[in-house]
Please model this.
Amino acid sequence: MDGGPRVPEQRLAGYPAEGGNPAALRFGVLGPVRAWRGDASLATGSPQQRALLAALLLREGRTATAGELIDALWGEDPPSQALAAVRTYASRLRKVLDPGVLVSESGGYAVRGLGEGALDLGVAQDLAAEAEKARGAGDLCRARDALRRALALWDGEALAGVPGPYAETQRVRLEEWRLQLLETRLDMDLEQGCHAEAVSELTALTAAHPLRERLRELLMLALYRSGRQAEALAVYADTRRLLADELGVDPRPGLRELQQRILQADPALAEPSAPAAESAAAPVRPAQLPATVPDFTGRASFVRELSEVLGSASGAEGRVMAVSALAGIGGVGKTTLAVHVAHQARAAFPDGQLYVDLQGAGARAAEPETVLGSFLRALGTADSAIPDSLEERAALYRSVLDGRRVLVLLDNARDAAQVRPLLPGTDGCAALVTSRVRMVDLAGAHLVDLDVMSPEEALSLFTRIVGEERVASEREAALDVVGACGFLPLAIRIAASRLAARRTWTVSVLAAKLADERRRLDELQAGDLAVKATFELGYGQLEPAQARAFRLLGLADGPDISLAAAAAVLDLPPEDTEDLLESLVDTSLLESAAPGRYRFHDLVRLYARACAERDEHPPSERGAALSRLLDFYLATAAGVYAIERPGDRTVDHLERTDFAGMQFSDDSAALDWLHSEAACLLACVRQSLGPSTLRRAVDLLLASKDLAESGASSLSYEAAAFAVRDATAVAGDALAEGRARTTLAQVLSRAGRFDEAGAEAERAIELGNRTGDSWTKGNAHNEQGIIANCLNQRDVSETHLREAIRAFRADGNRPGEASALCNLSRVLVSVGRTTSGIDLVRQGIALYDELGLTFRLANARYALGIALSHASRQNEALSELSTALKTFVENRQRLWEGATHFRIAQVHLSAHRPAQAAQHAEQALTTGSIGGDWMRANILTLLGRSLSSLGQTDRARACWRDALAIYEESGAPESTELRALLRPIEAA
Model:
């Protein structure tokens, strides 16, 4: 054999054609007669049945008659039922093989329709032809490599265990051919100066084949060139004696001539027959890159970026050793991208490409010295020339690469220390490194952080695997699938592969399976691919403190988490927390969303939670961590509320917290925090609806009520308010339910859904009276008064607002009192009691001024502007509304900003300035407004009036039609007035 032990798996790895069908039939005759479908072995039956299969395979598609097959299996003494036996064997083989492979023809049989590379003998013949062609062209490296691969296809004796005279003849032929190939390869080894390495192999071969003179000749030459002249001559003496004893003949002339040249110390024998210059021109060119995936998708910007970096090493000057280090979580496609880019760059590195999986994510990472040994051998260095120490190997490696253009792909690296000895360090070479760790300490490296795919790329990859036809009819479900995969390439590939293998599944079935978060990671596995296993490798390498942080931070539902919030979860100082979080970022298990903010990939978060359920001890620590997070958010939000509303008693009614919140020096910083944490705050509210945290969740919602009026977070706030209302009702906590319903009423009222809001406020008033909760009583009555006024129920509104004033005064809540006074002023103005209304709102302004409530003062000036407008004091009204608008803008209250634009537009229109009115109405539409669709219809109506005054009748009609549709859908009484406006225009 070709030196050294070999197992069947080593042999099989070489002979399926690259890019072939992975489920195609393959056959082996260079060893036992075997068949495979893909990697699955097929039963080839009894020895005689295998003999029949071998006879047909070796005919290379030509038909064998029944008589020829009988002779092949039994020779001159066939059994009486030989023909029936042949037919039985053929029938059994047909059942095992693919349809149409074993065919009956002209009274005989043939094997047809096999793909390229389906028979190991055919592959060996092709490789032998390739070697001959390469040798003729002077490329001994490629020729030797082709012959090595051809010889590696033998797995013991050809046709082993197959009976019959035909098999015996073919065995002898194939063994002779194998020895010829081996002699040719050894001859080329000596031509390239590998005489020392060849001696041991030739010694074993001459012992196994003592009468084979060519092997003896090669052994003599190898010994002589190794400086062992006496041994070389001894080989000749042994050979002459053996031939005389066994065959009675002398050695052939070539062997005798070689002996004479050794005796004469012929200088030409000391060098390879090929010129030294030619040998140097054809160094070993490794081509170790794994195959690129055929369905590589997207990543265009990364491919371009990495290609440019590699181009800096392979340019005309070739003066740069380029290193690119790709980092990212497991399954994000680092290896796939690196291999794809490396294949594209192969032409720029004609001296070869090296590849190694450094196993950095596993428990036993590859040792650099072991990798260097492998690389040196791949580059043509003899084992005997490879030193032992890491430093010496690294130095030799750099020396061997000197003057060459070689690309090195170091996959799955553990850290920079593992990588440094493996870098070429040579002009014109380049290295691509992939790792889960961001290698900031790898000097000179071009760092690339690989993120998940875009939704478009993810859908494209899913479609390429599953098929356009199945995806086209269920595009939304396909988007749900890739979304559930978090746009992670590995997860998408697994999900798509599962679907592709199940023709009865629809995309919707897969989407439904992945919708269950608790089962999602279990669903994302196919064969030896599993998302969970990929994450497990990274988690297994964490230190205990890192692992605890990973588990506990994954419990929080928010889209990301701030450093301060993370410190609360972990119950650690911010400095220690930052160190832990940054170390998790370095391992790619956590992402740095922005300075001081961190986030998990969706699937990594699910895995972290599974780890918390499995590994966190005691289990109560999970609840304690989330309780600390809720405390932190509630304490901080209460602080923001207090800064925004000095003197407001709301903060005094909130649940006490055990964990302190953040402190702010000014209003701007407080508002920055509130709005930046909006999604996390509301996620925490919804996550904290259990019995022990329910009241704090309700209080966090009402303490962050500014989010409801900001516009950007209004819908999320509304969803949280509904969830809290439902949870408190189920829990039977009347105090919490009263506060929750009051908060929901405020949300619905701002959205213009007055009937729903009124029902919630009415129920809140009942609960407030039952529990005696002063916060609920004052705020629920105040809100019910606002709602009744919007529904034109002035008397009802006045009753509730006066009740609210009494409740706020009893509680000592002066900002609440000011709010109710301003709301009552609007009611009085609406029924013509303008002077009283102005007096009330001025009382409210005085209270706000006294308390220094700048933000709430804007609401009061808004109300005063409306009152002054009703009193036809337009200039004063505009002044108050403009001041209010400026404050709303500064405090990021977009919905109040829009409402104020609407009121300004009303003033301008009443002052016969339609152009200015239209401008502010358009601004109100663009910004959005308190009051939801109802207010939008009001704005459209006003805009229509302004446009009509400007002579733009068609635009006015369009605005009024849109407004009418909104009014009619909600049953608003304003629809009657609007029909009257439209009637003359429609009739014209």
About this structure: Confidence is low (pLDDT under 50) at residues 1-20, 274-282, 316-320.
